[in-house]
Structures are given as C-alpha cells and as structure tokens.
Design goal:
The chain has 335 residues and is α/β, with parallel strands linked by helices. It has helices at 6-9, 18-21, 25-29, 33-42, 45-51, 81-91, 171-180, 214-225, 241-248, 270-273, 283-292, 296-314, 316-329, and strands spanning 2-4, 69-72, 97-102, 123-127, 139-141, 161-165, 186-190, 229-232, 252-256, 275-277. The chain has 2 domains: 2-143 and 318-329, no CATH class; 161-314, Glycogen Phosphorylase B (Rossmann fold). It is 35% helix and 13% strand. The longest helix has 19 residues, at 296-314.
Length: 335
Amino acid sequence: MFYANLNQFEIDNIEKNIFDLGHNSFFLCLLPEEQKRHVLSIVNPEARLALKYILNVKDTFVPYQDAKYVIQKPEKYYEKIESYGKEYLLYSSGDTRVVYFYGADDNRSLHLHHSWNCDPQDFIFFRYGSRKTEKWTNTFGLPYIVPDKFNGIILRKRLSMSYCGYPDNFIFKKLMIKEVSQYSYSDFILRDKWGGRLVHESQNYDSYDFGPTEKRRNEFFDNMERNLYAFTIRGMNNASYRFYEAFMMGRIPVLINTDMLLPFEDEIDYRRNTVYITDFRDIDGQIRKYHDSHTEDELIQIQKENRNIWLKYFRVDSMFYNTKKLLSNYKYEKV
C-alpha cells in the first residue's frame, strides 16, 4: 500500500531526538523490524520511549508498482518546491497519491506549484501547524509524538493549572502567559531559555542530546502531574507539543485555540475534553465556568478519557493505524 524511497530518509543519519524525528514516525512504522530496532538503538532515550511502539506495527513498504501511496519527506517544503514537482511527475500515475508529512515550524499554507500541471487530489499533506480556516481539503493535522510518562495518577476536583516552559519564543504566547500566570490557581514554572538551555547553543550540537536535561524534564512532568489542567498555547508554530503531553498524562488541556489544525477532528470531541478557549478576553472566566460546570466524577471521567484518547489516537502505533484509516476513507473535495 505504501512506498518510499528509503535513500531519501538516510536511516543511519536520522535525527536522534523526538522533537525533530516525530514527523517521520509514520515512515518508521513501515520499516522492516530489523531496521526499526536499529533506529531505536541509535536515538536518545526520550525518542526511544516515544517510538518503541513502532514494533507493534506489522505493515511494511511495498514495491512502487504495487503502491497506492508514496511517502515523501518535505522538511524544507518551500525551499525545495521545484524538486517536489519533479517527484510528483515521477510518482504520480493512475490512482497513486503522494503523501507528505511536514514537520517544520512553518505556519504558511501549503500550495501546489502552478508549473506542476497536476491535480491537487493526487497530494495529501499532514502537518503540525498552519491555520484550520486556510487549509485545503487535502491537508490534515499531525499529532506530535511524545514519550509515555503516565504514572496512573488521576486527580480529584481542584482548580489548578500547570505550565512549565519558555514563554518568550512567540510574542502572543509571552503576553498570554504573563496574564494567565497571575491567576490564583496557576502553578507556573517559567524558564529563561528553551528546555533550560539555548536551542542549538553551538553550531555542532548533538541531536542525540538535544532537548531539556533530565532534571528539567522531571520538573516539567511533576508540574503537569500535580495539576488538573494544563495550559497549552502555540509557540513558533501554530501547534502545541504540550497539548499531546497533557492527553498522555490524563490531564485536561486549557487550549488557547489560535485557529489550530488538530488531528482526527472528525472522531475526537475536543470541545468536550479540553477547555477550548477561542475568546481571549476572559480566559479566567472560561476556565472557571468549565470547572464549576463539571462534577468531580465528571472531571475524573474526562481525565480517563483523555488518557485513552492518547492511547487510541496519539501513541505512535495508534497514530499510524488511524492515519492509514483516514487515507483509506479520504475523498478530495474541491473548494
């Protein structure tokens, strides 16, 4: 069903951290088991914890002539758009469609190049960011893949909200966090740099060691674990990695929805399972209204549902099978 040019992905040179590797997780699920185990042996512990479930997937790549979908890897979509046009001309034939998994921190809408002379229905895009109201009908949300840190703790009804991170990488985020951190129930840990260290502190940073230190990671998850709600907001990209960590931890995200493109929206009732903020003038009032309108038993049930949503949709093997189902049911609609 799926074909990919394996040379394009350079298995031995693949990124070693989950932040840069996550958008390749669908591709990793299709590798032969020996190659999967090799990938798991070379990535860092956080990525290994997040990706270990690729071993649960039994699908594999097929020869090109037998494929319905061709998997491509446009990490620098806009910089390489001409070469992708050539790939389209190479791969598109009959019912074969080209599928892109786009993981860059880039909010621009994806557009097919006017010179390609191609049909938009032959392309399907999955991506983290962008804006929902500007997406094409062949563009879908992609969940961030996160390691499983859940300790089985479900909280009783108490208004408390976590945030641990660096607020200054996007001005809107900085302003929102400055306001929300003043709420009496906000349990915020504000960093002065991303992950407790500068991004790419040296030009020769090691992808294996990229990301927060173990101490900083533990502080992050301890903060989320002890609070019923988790404040989630976009950064450089119009998406939130923390949003999926909140589901994994069985917490209730307070989602500052900036026209986000969320995955599997036809199946997941995000407005039930998150405090879905679209009016930024009274965030405190909307949080309190959600909290006060639910009994303790209901909030406990929502926590359990959110953990199960992560297991069913966002864990790497579940993401694969749900994405495969979406592709099987996909019908292009002109707009």
